[in-house]
Amino acid sequence: MNRSSKKTLLTVRERVILHLLSYQRYQQDSDAPAAITQEGIADAIDIGRNNVSKVVNSLAEESIIEVHTKHVKGYASVKKVYFLTAGGYQKALELKAEIERTPITIIDFDGKVHEDIMGKLSLYLPKRYAFLDLALGVSRGRFDCSAFHEGKVKADRRFVDYTDRKPTVRVFFGRQKELQSLSEFLDSPNARLMAVCGIPGIGKTTLLAKFVQDIRDQRNVFWYRVHEWVNLRILLTPIAEFLSQLGKKGLERYLSRTENPLIGEVSTILDMELRDIPTVFIIDDVHKADRSVQDFLTAMVGVLEGLEHVSIICTSREIPSFYSRSQVFKGLVVELMMEGLDMDSSLRLMRNRELPEADLLDIYRATRGHPLFLELVDSPRSALGKNVRMFIEQEVYSKLDITERRILDIASVFRYPVLVDAFFTIEEEIAKDLGVVQKEMEYKDYLVDYDTIDVLLSKSLMHESVGRMIGMHDLLRDFFYSRLSPRQRITYHKAASRYYLQDTSAPAHVEALYHCLMAKEYSTAIRIAAGNGRDIISKGYGLPFAPLLTSLQSQCDNIDRSEKMELLLLEGDILEVRGEWDRAISRFEEIVRLCEPDHDRRLLAEVNRRIGVIHLRRSEFEKAEDYLVRSLGLAEEVKDPHTLVETYYDLGGVLQSRGRHQDAMAAFKRSMELAQKSLDDIGLGMALYGIGRVYSTTLDHQLAIRYKKEALEVLERTGDVDNIARICIGLGTSLAEVFNFSEAAKYHERAVEMGRTSGNLELQGYALRNAVVVYVEMDELEKAKEYISQATKIFEKLDNPILMADMHLMQGYIYNKKMEWEWAKEEFADALGTIRRMDAPLLLGRWLYEIAQQFIKSGDKDGAKGLLQEALQISTAGAAENLKREVELALASISV
Fold this sequence. Notes:
896 residues; single chain; Rossmann fold; globular; Arc Repressor Mutant, subunit A; 63% helix
C-alpha cells in the first residue's frame, strides 16, 4: 500500500526511530535528556508506555537501538535511555529521506489545495515545527495547516492562558454614560485610543466586558490583561495568534524567527495586517506594563492614525504615560475617568442583593458608589471609617463559612485564572500530602463544591471567564493570600505545582516551576527547569521562565553538577537572545569550569562554539577563531556531526571576514560534507551558500551562482523563509554581476515578497534596495523610484542612517539617468552629508569616489575633482591603498 494512503504516515516503530534520531547527538554525554526515557518517548509520539516498552525491546533485539543507563537531566537517579546504533542511525536517516520524498495533499490556511512532498511542508506554515510532529499531522495523505497549527496553539493554552480572557458579566447596573462614551469613541473619525482610568475595584474591567458583549458581532475583539513581567514579545504572541485566526500570518511568521521583536518592524507589520479589518484591542491593567510594552503602545498610537477601523481601549489605575497631551488635545486619544456608580444604579445593585431598603441610601453615601464595596457590604456601619483591609476582614472574611474560605484560600495561590476543576485537584493533592486519603475521593469527600463556587461568583468574590476559568480580583487575592500561614502556603503551592504537572505544555511547566519554588520543592523545580527548560524557551516563554531560573539558582545550594550546567546553559541561551552577550559569555565560561573533560566533551564543544559565535557577531575575529577551533577539536573527538556542521560554517564566516578565502572555502566544504552525511538540510544549505559567498568575493561569479542556486534548492525543503530570502538576495546580486538583470530582478522580487510574508523588515529593505540597483540598470526607473520610496520608509523605521543615505544615492543615480543633474546633485549631497555625520571616513571615501564618477559622466569635472581630492586625503590618512590607487587614476583622467 502507498504510504500516503494509510491513515497515519508512520508506524509506531518508525515514530520511535525518528524521535531518537533527533537526540543522537547526546550519546556521548554523561547526562541524557528525559525525552529518550520510555516516558519521554511515549509523550513525544503519543502512545502508551506499555507499547513503547514492547517497541524498544524489539528494536534492541534487531540492533537498531541500544540501551544505556545514564543520569537523566532533572532526576536524582539513573534511568534507562535509548540511542540508535550506528546501523540504526543510518536506517533512521534513510527513513527520514524517504518520508521527505513522500507526496501528500496540503490544505493551506486559505483552504487552497496543493500537491507537494513532505519535505516542503514547512513552507506552508508560519513557524517551524519538528519533522516528527509534521509527519504525525498527516492523515490519509492529507495535511490541514489550519487544524494542525491551531491544535498546537490550543495545546499550549490548555492549563494556562496568560491572556486572562474577558470575564463573564453576571449582573450589570448603570454606566449608561460611560457606555455611550465608548460607543462614540468607536464611531469617532479621529479618536483611535481610549484610556479608561480609575481606582482598583471601580469597575473598569466590568465596564469593558459589558461593552464587548454589545459590539463583538460588529468588530473583531482582542482582550489581554497585562501582568508585571509581560514584555513586548509576550504581548505580541497572543496578538499574532488572534491575527492568524483572521487569516493574517505576518506577525506570527515574524515572531517565529526572532526572540527580540523590534517595535519598528512590528508596527509596520500591524499597519499592513490591520488595514480594512474592524478590530478593537482591549488592554486591561496597562499600568502594569513594562517599558517595552509602553514603547510599543506609543508607536501604535501613531500607527492607528492611518487605520480607520482599528482602535485600542486600555484600562489603568492612573493616566498612562505612553501618549502625549498634544494627542489628547488633537482628539486622537480620549480619556474616560471612572467614578462610583450613580445613586439610582447603586440602589438597583443593592436591591438585587435584597439588602434592607432602609439602609440603602446610607450604604450608598458610605461607599460613594464603589461597585466592589457595594457588592460586599451588608450595612452602612460596616463601610464607615475603615481601610480596605479592615473592611474585607470584618465584612467579608468573617461572614464566610469554612468551605467558602477554603475555596478562596486556594484561589489566592494562583497567579492566573484556572479551570474550575483545579479546586478539586488541589483538594486531592492536599489530602494526599496530609496522608488522609487511601482511596479515590468521591464528590461528598471534597470540602470544595460547585454550589459554593457559584455562590462566591454571585457575591463577586471571584470572577469567571470563558471556558469556566475562575479567578479573583487583585485586592481580594492579596488579602486572602496574606492570611495563609507559612505551612498552608507551602502545602497549597505544592498542590498547585502538581496540578500544573498534569499538563506537558510549556506555560504549564512555567507555572509548575513557580509553585515549586514557592513550596520550596527544589528537587522538583530542578527537574522541571533542567528537563523542560529548552522546550520552554523554544516555545517563546523564556521571559517568564528567566526570573524563576535565577530564583532557583539563588535559593537552592545543592544543585547537582550536571543540573547546574544545564541551568547555566539555559540562562546563557536567554541572555544571548536578549543581546546581553557579556553575561551570556560568563554563564558559558562557568559551564567550562564545571565540565569534566572526559565526560562532557560534546557540551564543551557546544559552549565553545556559542562563545565563538558571540565574538563573531562583535567582529572580534581572532577571539572567535580561537573558540571555534577549540570547539572543532572537541566535536571531532566525540564525532558530533551537528556541532561540527555548525562550527565549520561559523569558522568559514570568520575566515572569510579575515580575507583568508582558501581557508574559508575549506571550512565551508567540510561543513557541506558533514551535513550531507547527516541529512542536515539547513546545515547543507548554509554551507553551500557560504561557498557561493567566497566565490563572489573572488569574483568567480558563475561558480557563485551555481552554489547559491544549489543552496536555495536545499533550503526550500526546510521552510526557513529568512535564509531562503537571504540567498535570493545573494543570488540576485551575483546574477547582476554577470549582467543577467532580468533574472536577478526575479530573485530580488521573490526576496521582497518573502520579507513581506515573514515580517522581516530588514530583509525586505535589503531586497528592495538590491532590486533598485537592478531596475536602474534595466532603465525601469519608475519601478526603481517606487522601491526606493518603500525601502526608505523601512530604513527610517529601522533607524539605519547608512541605508537611508544609500537610498539618496540610488535616487541620485536615477536623476542622473534622466538627465536631471541638479536634482541628482542634491540627492548626492544628502547622501554624503549623512555619511559625514557618522564619522565613517573609509566609507565616505568610497562614496566620494563613486559619486565623482557620476559627476564625470555628467561633464562636471570641477565638481568631480573636489570630491576626488577629498577622497584622496581620506584614503591616504586611512591607509586604504586600493581606494587611493583608484582615486589617483580618476584624478589623472580628468586632468588630461
